[in-house]
Amino acid sequence: MVTLPEALRLGQAPDGGLYMPDSLPFFSGQMLAKWHQADYLTIAEGVLAPFFEGFLELSLLRTLLQKAYSQTPGWEEGVELPLENYAPQRYLARLDRGPTASFKDFAARLLAQVLPYCYPSGYSLTILVATSGDTGSAVGEAFRGIAGVRVLILYPEAEVSPIQQKQLDHIGQNVRALRISGKFDDCQQLVKTAFLDPDLQHLSLTSANSISIGRVLPQIVYYFYMYAQVVQVPGEEVIFAVPSGNLGNSLGAELARRMGLPVRKIIIGTNLNQAFPIFLATGAYHKIQPSLPCLSNAMNVGHPSNAARYLDLYGGILDKEGVLYQMPDLPQMQQYLAGYAFEDAATEATMRRFYQEHQLILEPHGAVGCLALEKHLAKYSEDLPFPAIVLETAHPAKFAQIVERVLGFAPPACPVLEKVNQRPAQVQALAANYPAFKDFLMTQDA
Ligand SMILES: *Cc1c(COP(=O)(O)O)cnc(C)c1O
Protein backbone atom coordinates (compact mmCIF):
# COMPACT_ATOMS: atom_id res chain seq x y z
CA MET A 1 0.00 0.00 0.00
CA VAL A 2 1.20 3.54 -0.75
CA THR A 3 0.14 6.99 0.39
CA LEU A 4 -1.77 9.31 -1.94
CA PRO A 5 1.27 11.54 -2.66
CA GLU A 6 3.31 8.45 -3.55
CA ALA A 7 0.58 7.22 -5.87
CA LEU A 8 0.43 10.66 -7.50
CA ARG A 9 4.22 10.80 -7.94
CA LEU A 10 4.41 7.33 -9.44
CA GLY A 11 1.27 7.50 -11.60
CA GLN A 12 1.35 3.75 -12.09
CA ALA A 13 2.52 1.03 -9.69
CA PRO A 14 5.97 -0.45 -10.41
CA ASP A 15 4.36 -3.79 -11.32
CA GLY A 16 2.21 -2.07 -13.95
CA GLY A 17 -0.92 -2.07 -11.78
CA LEU A 18 -3.28 0.86 -11.17
CA TYR A 19 -3.75 2.56 -7.83
CA MET A 20 -7.16 2.58 -6.17
CA PRO A 21 -8.28 4.13 -2.86
CA ASP A 22 -8.39 1.41 -0.19
CA SER A 23 -11.58 2.88 1.21
CA LEU A 24 -14.07 5.51 0.11
CA PRO A 25 -15.76 8.19 2.18
CA PHE A 26 -19.55 7.98 2.42
CA PHE A 27 -21.87 10.97 2.31
CA SER A 28 -25.28 10.68 3.91
CA GLY A 29 -28.57 12.07 2.71
CA GLN A 30 -28.09 14.94 5.14
CA MET A 31 -24.89 15.92 3.37
CA LEU A 32 -26.60 15.72 -0.02
CA ALA A 33 -29.32 18.01 1.30
CA LYS A 34 -26.66 20.45 2.49
CA TRP A 35 -25.05 20.46 -0.95
CA HIS A 36 -28.37 21.01 -2.74
CA GLN A 37 -27.78 23.84 -5.26
CA ALA A 38 -24.34 24.56 -3.72
CA ASP A 39 -21.49 25.98 -5.78
CA TYR A 40 -18.71 23.94 -7.36
CA LEU A 41 -15.96 24.76 -4.86
CA THR A 42 -18.07 23.93 -1.83
CA ILE A 43 -18.93 20.51 -3.23
CA ALA A 44 -15.38 19.87 -4.46
CA GLU A 45 -13.95 20.60 -1.03
CA GLY A 46 -16.48 18.37 0.72
CA VAL A 47 -16.05 15.45 -1.68
CA LEU A 48 -12.25 15.56 -1.88
CA ALA A 49 -11.23 16.49 1.67
CA PRO A 50 -11.40 12.90 3.00
CA PHE A 51 -9.02 11.69 0.26
CA PHE A 52 -6.46 14.37 1.07
CA GLU A 53 -6.67 14.05 4.86
CA GLY A 54 -3.20 13.71 6.40
CA PHE A 55 -1.59 15.06 3.23
CA LEU A 56 -3.00 18.53 2.58
CA GLU A 57 -4.47 20.74 5.28
CA LEU A 58 -8.05 21.71 4.56
CA SER A 59 -7.14 25.38 4.12
CA LEU A 60 -4.45 24.48 1.59
CA LEU A 61 -6.79 22.17 -0.29
CA ARG A 62 -9.28 25.02 -0.45
CA THR A 63 -6.65 27.37 -1.88
CA LEU A 64 -5.57 24.80 -4.47
CA LEU A 65 -9.17 24.20 -5.51
CA GLN A 66 -9.67 27.95 -5.93
CA LYS A 67 -6.58 28.16 -8.11
CA ALA A 68 -7.50 25.09 -10.13
CA TYR A 69 -11.00 26.28 -10.88
CA SER A 70 -10.43 30.00 -11.06
CA GLN A 71 -12.06 31.76 -13.95
CA THR A 72 -10.57 30.80 -17.33
CA PRO A 73 -10.21 34.02 -19.36
CA GLY A 74 -12.71 33.93 -22.21
CA TRP A 75 -15.52 32.06 -20.51
CA GLU A 76 -18.36 33.86 -18.79
CA GLU A 77 -17.90 34.19 -15.07
CA GLY A 78 -19.34 31.86 -12.46
CA VAL A 79 -20.50 29.11 -14.81
CA GLU A 80 -18.28 26.09 -14.23
CA LEU A 81 -20.60 23.53 -15.74
CA PRO A 82 -23.72 24.59 -17.67
CA LEU A 83 -26.65 22.15 -17.65
CA GLU A 84 -29.04 22.49 -20.58
CA ASN A 85 -32.55 21.19 -19.93
CA TYR A 86 -33.36 19.92 -23.44
CA ALA A 87 -36.50 17.93 -22.62
CA PRO A 88 -38.51 17.18 -19.46
CA GLN A 89 -36.10 15.47 -17.00
CA ARG A 90 -33.31 15.40 -19.63
CA TYR A 91 -30.13 17.46 -19.29
CA LEU A 92 -27.01 18.00 -21.32
CA ALA A 93 -24.03 18.87 -19.13
CA ARG A 94 -21.37 20.83 -20.99
CA LEU A 95 -18.01 20.05 -19.42
CA ASP A 96 -16.15 22.36 -21.75
CA ARG A 97 -15.53 25.49 -19.64
CA GLY A 98 -11.82 24.88 -19.00
CA PRO A 99 -8.77 26.21 -20.82
CA THR A 100 -8.86 23.51 -23.53
CA ALA A 101 -12.66 23.20 -23.77
CA SER A 102 -12.56 19.56 -22.66
CA PHE A 103 -13.82 17.69 -19.59
CA LYS A 104 -10.20 16.61 -19.10
CA ASP A 105 -9.49 20.13 -17.81
CA PHE A 106 -11.36 19.39 -14.55
CA ALA A 107 -8.89 16.69 -13.52
CA ALA A 108 -5.74 18.08 -15.11
CA ARG A 109 -6.11 21.47 -13.43
CA LEU A 110 -6.44 20.02 -9.93
CA LEU A 111 -3.62 17.53 -10.44
CA ALA A 112 -1.35 20.38 -11.56
CA GLN A 113 -2.02 22.25 -8.33
CA VAL A 114 -1.57 19.20 -6.10
CA LEU A 115 1.40 17.42 -7.71
CA PRO A 116 4.13 19.87 -6.59
CA TYR A 117 3.07 19.17 -2.95
CA CYS A 118 3.89 15.49 -3.47
CA TYR A 119 7.61 16.34 -3.64
CA PRO A 120 9.94 17.90 -1.07
CA SER A 121 10.06 21.67 -1.49
CA GLY A 122 12.71 23.00 -3.83
CA TYR A 123 12.36 19.92 -6.01
CA SER A 124 12.03 20.23 -9.76
CA LEU A 125 10.37 17.69 -11.97
CA THR A 126 9.78 16.96 -15.61
CA ILE A 127 6.43 15.71 -16.84
CA LEU A 128 6.44 13.71 -20.05
CA VAL A 129 3.15 13.31 -21.86
CA ALA A 130 2.67 11.31 -25.02
CA THR A 131 -0.58 12.40 -26.61
CA SER A 132 -2.70 11.78 -29.65
CA GLY A 133 -4.47 15.08 -29.00
CA ASP A 134 -6.67 16.16 -26.10
CA THR A 135 -4.79 14.87 -23.06
CA GLY A 136 -1.60 16.70 -23.97
CA SER A 137 -3.16 20.13 -24.22
CA ALA A 138 -5.28 19.68 -21.08
CA VAL A 139 -2.21 18.66 -19.06
CA GLY A 140 -0.03 21.34 -20.66
CA GLU A 141 -2.47 24.18 -20.00
CA ALA A 142 -3.05 22.98 -16.45
CA PHE A 143 0.69 23.00 -15.62
CA ARG A 144 1.43 26.24 -17.49
CA GLY A 145 3.13 28.59 -15.03
CA ILE A 146 3.44 26.04 -12.21
CA ALA A 147 6.83 26.64 -10.52
CA GLY A 148 9.37 23.81 -10.42
CA VAL A 149 7.72 21.83 -13.21
CA ARG A 150 8.66 21.54 -16.85
CA VAL A 151 6.32 19.77 -19.22
CA LEU A 152 7.23 18.11 -22.49
CA ILE A 153 4.39 16.99 -24.70
CA LEU A 154 5.23 14.51 -27.44
CA TYR A 155 2.74 14.34 -30.26
CA PRO A 156 2.78 12.52 -33.62
CA GLU A 157 3.26 15.00 -36.43
CA ALA A 158 0.78 13.42 -38.81
CA GLU A 159 -1.88 12.23 -36.38
CA VAL A 160 -3.27 15.35 -34.68
CA SER A 161 -5.85 17.73 -36.17
CA PRO A 162 -4.85 21.32 -37.12
CA ILE A 163 -6.79 22.70 -34.12
CA GLN A 164 -5.13 20.23 -31.78
CA GLN A 165 -1.70 21.05 -33.15
CA LYS A 166 -2.25 24.77 -32.58
CA GLN A 167 -3.39 24.11 -29.04
CA LEU A 168 -0.30 22.01 -28.34
CA ASP A 169 2.25 24.34 -29.95
CA HIS A 170 1.06 27.56 -28.31
CA ILE A 171 0.94 26.74 -24.61
CA GLY A 172 4.32 28.30 -23.82
CA GLN A 173 6.08 29.21 -20.55
CA ASN A 174 7.29 26.00 -18.88
CA VAL A 175 5.50 23.81 -21.44
CA ARG A 176 7.11 22.73 -24.68
CA ALA A 177 5.59 20.67 -27.48
CA LEU A 178 7.75 18.11 -29.25
CA ARG A 179 6.49 17.36 -32.72
CA ILE A 180 7.68 13.81 -33.36
CA SER A 181 8.07 12.53 -36.91
CA GLY A 182 6.35 9.26 -36.13
CA LYS A 183 3.14 7.74 -34.82
CA PHE A 184 1.47 7.95 -31.43
CA ASP A 185 3.01 4.58 -30.56
CA ASP A 186 6.48 6.03 -31.23
CA CYS A 187 5.77 8.91 -28.84
CA GLN A 188 4.62 6.47 -26.18
CA GLN A 189 7.69 4.32 -26.72
CA LEU A 190 10.05 7.30 -26.29
CA VAL A 191 8.36 8.22 -23.02
CA LYS A 192 8.39 4.65 -21.70
CA THR A 193 12.07 4.22 -22.55
CA ALA A 194 12.96 7.49 -20.82
CA PHE A 195 11.16 6.42 -17.62
CA LEU A 196 13.32 3.28 -17.48
CA ASP A 197 16.61 5.01 -18.35
CA PRO A 198 18.94 5.13 -15.30
CA ASP A 199 20.84 8.09 -16.82
CA LEU A 200 17.69 10.21 -16.46
CA GLN A 201 16.91 9.38 -12.80
CA HIS A 202 18.05 12.84 -11.69
CA LEU A 203 15.36 14.53 -13.80
CA SER A 204 12.47 13.12 -11.68
CA LEU A 205 10.39 12.18 -14.66
CA THR A 206 6.68 11.68 -14.07
CA SER A 207 3.63 11.23 -16.24
CA ALA A 208 0.32 12.86 -15.19
CA ASN A 209 -1.38 10.56 -17.67
CA SER A 210 -4.92 9.32 -17.58
CA ILE A 211 -4.24 6.24 -15.44
CA SER A 212 -3.01 8.32 -12.50
CA ILE A 213 -5.49 8.19 -9.62
CA GLY A 214 -4.99 11.96 -9.55
CA ARG A 215 -6.84 12.13 -12.85
CA VAL A 216 -9.75 10.09 -11.47
CA LEU A 217 -10.51 11.68 -8.07
CA PRO A 218 -11.39 15.17 -9.41
CA GLN A 219 -13.85 13.52 -11.80
CA ILE A 220 -15.96 12.32 -8.88
CA VAL A 221 -16.76 15.90 -7.94
CA TYR A 222 -18.78 16.96 -10.94
CA TYR A 223 -21.23 14.08 -10.53
CA PHE A 224 -22.10 15.37 -7.04
CA TYR A 225 -22.31 18.88 -8.46
CA MET A 226 -24.60 17.95 -11.37
CA TYR A 227 -26.81 16.01 -8.98
CA ALA A 228 -27.07 18.99 -6.65
CA GLN A 229 -28.21 21.22 -9.52
CA VAL A 230 -30.72 18.88 -11.15
CA VAL A 231 -32.72 17.04 -8.50
CA GLN A 232 -35.86 18.53 -7.00
CA VAL A 233 -35.57 16.60 -3.76
CA PRO A 234 -32.15 15.37 -2.59
CA GLY A 235 -32.35 11.60 -2.29
CA GLU A 236 -34.05 10.87 -5.60
CA GLU A 237 -32.18 8.72 -8.10
CA VAL A 238 -30.61 10.01 -11.31
CA ILE A 239 -29.13 8.47 -14.46
CA PHE A 240 -25.83 9.53 -16.02
CA ALA A 241 -24.91 8.84 -19.65
CA VAL A 242 -21.19 9.12 -20.36
CA PRO A 243 -19.41 8.95 -23.73
CA SER A 244 -16.46 6.71 -22.90
CA GLY A 245 -13.06 5.65 -24.16
CA ASN A 246 -10.62 4.83 -21.41
CA LEU A 247 -13.56 4.83 -18.91
CA GLY A 248 -11.97 7.35 -16.54
CA ASN A 249 -14.85 9.79 -16.76
CA SER A 250 -17.56 7.25 -16.03
CA LEU A 251 -15.44 5.75 -13.24
CA GLY A 252 -15.99 9.06 -11.44
CA ALA A 253 -19.75 8.30 -11.48
CA GLU A 254 -19.16 4.76 -10.21
CA LEU A 255 -17.07 6.01 -7.30
CA ALA A 256 -19.61 8.77 -6.57
CA ARG A 257 -22.35 6.11 -6.37
CA ARG A 258 -20.27 4.12 -3.90
CA MET A 259 -19.81 7.33 -1.89
CA GLY A 260 -23.53 7.73 -1.40
CA LEU A 261 -24.73 9.58 -4.51
CA PRO A 262 -28.12 8.15 -5.53
CA VAL A 263 -27.15 6.94 -9.02
CA ARG A 264 -29.70 4.63 -10.57
CA LYS A 265 -27.71 3.78 -13.67
CA ILE A 266 -24.46 4.70 -15.38
CA ILE A 267 -24.86 4.42 -19.13
CA ILE A 268 -21.61 3.96 -20.98
CA GLY A 269 -21.70 4.99 -24.64
CA THR A 270 -18.87 3.98 -26.96
CA ASN A 271 -18.06 3.94 -30.64
CA LEU A 272 -17.12 0.63 -32.27
CA ASN A 273 -14.32 0.19 -29.74
CA GLN A 274 -16.83 -1.66 -27.62
CA ALA A 275 -14.83 -4.11 -25.49
CA PHE A 276 -16.56 -2.92 -22.28
CA PRO A 277 -20.19 -2.86 -23.50
CA ILE A 278 -19.65 -6.38 -24.84
CA PHE A 279 -18.22 -7.46 -21.50
CA LEU A 280 -21.22 -6.04 -19.63
CA ALA A 281 -23.60 -7.90 -21.90
CA THR A 282 -21.77 -11.25 -22.11
CA GLY A 283 -19.09 -11.51 -19.42
CA ALA A 284 -16.42 -12.09 -22.09
CA TYR A 285 -13.61 -9.55 -22.39
CA HIS A 286 -11.88 -9.20 -25.76
CA LYS A 287 -9.71 -6.15 -26.30
CA ILE A 288 -9.99 -4.64 -29.75
CA GLN A 289 -6.59 -4.58 -31.40
CA PRO A 290 -5.71 -2.40 -33.16
CA SER A 291 -8.35 0.08 -32.04
CA LEU A 292 -10.85 1.11 -34.72
CA PRO A 293 -10.74 4.64 -36.15
CA CYS A 294 -14.09 6.37 -35.48
CA LEU A 295 -15.45 9.91 -35.69
CA SER A 296 -15.45 10.27 -31.89
CA ASN A 297 -11.68 9.85 -31.99
CA ALA A 298 -10.93 10.54 -28.33
CA MET A 299 -12.79 7.30 -27.62
CA ASN A 300 -10.79 5.12 -30.02
CA VAL A 301 -9.56 2.92 -27.20
CA GLY A 302 -9.50 -0.81 -27.88
CA HIS A 303 -8.52 -1.84 -24.34
CA PRO A 304 -9.61 0.79 -21.80
CA SER A 305 -7.22 0.81 -18.85
CA ASN A 306 -9.95 1.70 -16.37
CA ALA A 307 -11.80 -1.52 -17.20
CA ALA A 308 -9.42 -3.12 -14.68
CA ARG A 309 -10.54 -0.65 -12.00
CA TYR A 310 -14.22 -1.37 -12.72
CA LEU A 311 -13.67 -5.12 -12.51
CA ASP A 312 -11.74 -4.73 -9.28
CA LEU A 313 -14.63 -2.78 -7.71
CA TYR A 314 -17.00 -5.66 -8.52
CA GLY A 315 -14.66 -8.40 -7.29
CA GLY A 316 -12.96 -9.40 -10.55
CA ILE A 317 -9.39 -9.28 -11.84
CA LEU A 318 -8.41 -8.11 -15.31
CA ASP A 319 -4.71 -7.67 -16.14
CA LYS A 320 -3.09 -5.03 -18.29
CA GLU A 321 -3.03 -7.31 -21.32
CA GLY A 322 -6.78 -7.77 -21.05
CA VAL A 323 -6.73 -11.30 -19.60
CA LEU A 324 -9.61 -11.99 -17.20
CA TYR A 325 -8.28 -13.86 -14.15
CA GLN A 326 -11.35 -13.64 -11.98
CA MET A 327 -14.93 -13.01 -12.99
CA PRO A 328 -16.56 -10.07 -11.17
CA ASP A 329 -20.15 -10.13 -9.93
CA LEU A 330 -21.65 -9.59 -13.38
CA PRO A 331 -25.34 -9.41 -12.32
CA GLN A 332 -24.42 -6.66 -9.86
CA MET A 333 -22.48 -4.81 -12.56
CA GLN A 334 -25.52 -5.08 -14.83
CA GLN A 335 -27.72 -3.63 -12.11
CA TYR A 336 -25.77 -0.36 -12.12
CA LEU A 337 -24.05 -0.24 -15.50
CA ALA A 338 -25.24 -0.46 -19.09
CA GLY A 339 -23.12 -0.16 -22.23
CA TYR A 340 -24.12 0.70 -25.79
CA ALA A 341 -21.95 1.05 -28.90
CA PHE A 342 -22.63 2.96 -32.11
CA GLU A 343 -21.31 3.32 -35.63
CA ASP A 344 -20.37 6.71 -37.04
CA ALA A 345 -23.50 6.85 -39.20
CA ALA A 346 -25.68 6.67 -36.07
CA THR A 347 -23.53 9.31 -34.36
CA GLU A 348 -23.98 11.68 -37.30
CA ALA A 349 -27.73 11.04 -37.50
CA THR A 350 -27.99 11.86 -33.78
CA MET A 351 -26.09 15.13 -34.24
CA ARG A 352 -28.60 16.12 -36.95
CA ARG A 353 -31.68 14.96 -35.04
CA PHE A 354 -30.69 16.65 -31.77
CA TYR A 355 -30.22 19.88 -33.62
CA GLN A 356 -33.60 19.59 -35.33
CA GLU A 357 -35.53 18.40 -32.30
CA HIS A 358 -33.80 20.23 -29.46
CA GLN A 359 -31.65 22.94 -31.11
CA LEU A 360 -28.64 21.34 -29.41
CA ILE A 361 -25.29 21.48 -31.14
CA LEU A 362 -23.38 18.32 -30.26
CA GLU A 363 -19.95 17.13 -31.26
CA PRO A 364 -19.50 13.39 -31.97
CA HIS A 365 -18.61 12.31 -28.40
CA GLY A 366 -21.62 14.01 -26.84
CA ALA A 367 -23.83 12.57 -29.57
CA VAL A 368 -22.74 9.05 -28.61
CA GLY A 369 -23.76 9.85 -25.01
CA CYS A 370 -27.20 11.12 -26.06
CA LEU A 371 -27.81 8.11 -28.25
CA ALA A 372 -26.75 5.69 -25.52
CA LEU A 373 -29.30 7.27 -23.17
CA GLU A 374 -32.08 7.01 -25.78
CA LYS A 375 -31.29 3.41 -26.55
CA HIS A 376 -31.29 2.54 -22.87
CA LEU A 377 -34.60 4.25 -22.16
CA ALA A 378 -36.22 2.57 -25.16
CA LYS A 379 -35.23 -0.78 -23.69
CA TYR A 380 -35.92 -0.12 -19.99
CA SER A 381 -39.10 1.92 -19.66
CA GLU A 382 -38.90 1.68 -15.85
CA ASP A 383 -35.99 4.16 -16.05
CA LEU A 384 -38.02 6.76 -18.01
CA PRO A 385 -39.31 8.81 -15.04
CA PHE A 386 -35.86 9.55 -13.58
CA PRO A 387 -33.82 12.68 -14.29
CA ALA A 388 -31.04 11.83 -16.75
CA ILE A 389 -27.88 13.79 -17.45
CA VAL A 390 -25.76 13.30 -20.58
CA LEU A 391 -22.17 14.50 -20.42
CA GLU A 392 -20.97 16.53 -23.42
CA THR A 393 -17.21 16.11 -23.06
CA ALA A 394 -15.89 18.80 -25.45
CA HIS A 395 -16.94 22.05 -27.10
CA PRO A 396 -18.35 21.51 -30.64
CA ALA A 397 -15.76 23.97 -32.01
CA LYS A 398 -13.04 21.44 -31.19
CA PHE A 399 -14.60 19.28 -33.90
CA ALA A 400 -15.61 22.15 -36.16
CA GLN A 401 -14.97 20.38 -39.46
CA ILE A 402 -17.09 17.38 -38.51
CA VAL A 403 -19.88 19.54 -37.10
CA GLU A 404 -19.94 21.68 -40.22
CA ARG A 405 -20.04 18.69 -42.54
CA VAL A 406 -22.82 16.98 -40.58
CA LEU A 407 -25.01 19.96 -39.66
CA GLY A 408 -24.26 22.14 -42.67
CA PHE A 409 -23.06 25.12 -40.64
CA ALA A 410 -20.05 25.95 -38.47
CA PRO A 411 -20.51 25.64 -34.69
CA PRO A 412 -20.29 28.82 -32.62
CA ALA A 413 -16.71 29.87 -31.91
CA CYS A 414 -15.16 28.80 -28.64
CA PRO A 415 -13.58 31.73 -26.78
CA VAL A 416 -10.62 29.79 -25.35
CA LEU A 417 -9.73 28.18 -28.68
CA GLU A 418 -9.77 31.59 -30.38
CA LYS A 419 -7.18 32.89 -27.94
CA VAL A 420 -4.68 30.11 -28.57
CA ASN A 421 -2.97 31.71 -31.56
CA GLN A 422 -2.28 34.95 -29.78
CA ARG A 423 0.54 33.34 -27.80
CA PRO A 424 3.92 32.59 -29.38
CA ALA A 425 4.56 29.01 -30.45
CA GLN A 426 6.94 26.92 -28.36
CA VAL A 427 7.53 23.75 -30.29
CA GLN A 428 10.44 21.71 -31.53
CA ALA A 429 10.57 19.01 -34.18
CA LEU A 430 12.34 15.79 -33.24
CA ALA A 431 12.94 12.47 -34.96
CA ALA A 432 11.28 9.40 -33.45
CA ASN A 433 14.66 8.30 -32.23
CA TYR A 434 15.59 7.66 -28.59
CA PRO A 435 19.16 9.02 -28.56
CA ALA A 436 17.93 12.33 -30.03
CA PHE A 437 15.14 12.54 -27.43
CA LYS A 438 17.49 11.65 -24.58
CA ASP A 439 19.95 14.28 -25.70
CA PHE A 440 17.13 16.83 -25.72
CA LEU A 441 16.09 15.84 -22.18
CA MET A 442 19.64 16.09 -20.83
CA THR A 443 20.53 19.43 -22.41
CA GLN A 444 17.40 21.59 -22.48
CA ASP A 445 16.22 23.19 -19.26
CA ALA A 446 12.84 24.37 -20.43
C1 LIG B 1 -10.91 11.77 -23.46
C2 LIG B 1 -12.24 12.02 -24.06
C3 LIG B 1 -13.31 11.11 -23.91
C4 LIG B 1 -13.16 9.78 -23.23
O1 LIG B 1 -13.04 9.88 -21.84
P1 LIG B 1 -12.56 8.62 -20.98
O2 LIG B 1 -12.37 9.13 -19.61
O3 LIG B 1 -11.29 8.16 -21.63
O4 LIG B 1 -13.63 7.59 -21.08
C5 LIG B 1 -14.56 11.46 -24.40
N1 LIG B 1 -14.74 12.62 -25.07
C6 LIG B 1 -13.74 13.50 -25.26
C7 LIG B 1 -14.01 14.74 -26.03
C8 LIG B 1 -12.46 13.24 -24.76
O5 LIG B 1 -11.47 14.12 -24.97
List keywords for this structure.
446 residues; alpha/beta; Rossmann fold; 5-stranded parallel beta sheet; 13 strands; 15% strand
How would you sum up this structure, described in words?
The chain has 446 residues and is α/β, with parallel strands linked by helices. The protein has a domain of 214 residues: 3-Layer(aba) Sandwich (Rossmann fold). It has 19 helices and 13 strands. A 6-stranded mixed sheet has the order 1-2-12-7-8-11. Helix 3 packs across helix 4 and helix 3 runs antiparallel to helix 10. The chain is globular, with a radius of gyration of 21 Å. The two termini are 34 Å apart. It binds pyridoxal-5'-phosphate. The site of pyridoxal-5'-phosphate has 15 residues, from helix 11.
Q: What secondary-structure arrangement, pairings included, does this model have?
A:
Blueprint: H1 4-10, H2 29-35, H3 40-52, H4 58-68, E1 83-87, E2 90-94, H5 104-114, E3 125-130, H6 134-143, E4 149-156, H7 162-169, E5 175-181, H8 184-196, E6 205-206, H9 213-216, H10 218-230, E7 238-243, H11 248-258, E8 263-270, H12 275-282, H13 307-313, E9 317-318, E10 324-326, H14 330-336, E11 337-341, H15 344-358, H16 364-379, E12 388-392, H17 400-407, H18 415-419, E13 427-431, H19 434-443
Parallel strand pairs: 2-12, 3-4, 3-6, 4-5, 5-13, 7-8, 7-12, 8-11
Antiparallel strand pairs: 1-2, 9-10
The chain binds pyridoxal-5'-phosphate (PLP).
Residues 102, 104, 134, 243-249, 298-299, 365, 393-394 line the site of pyridoxal-5'-phosphate.
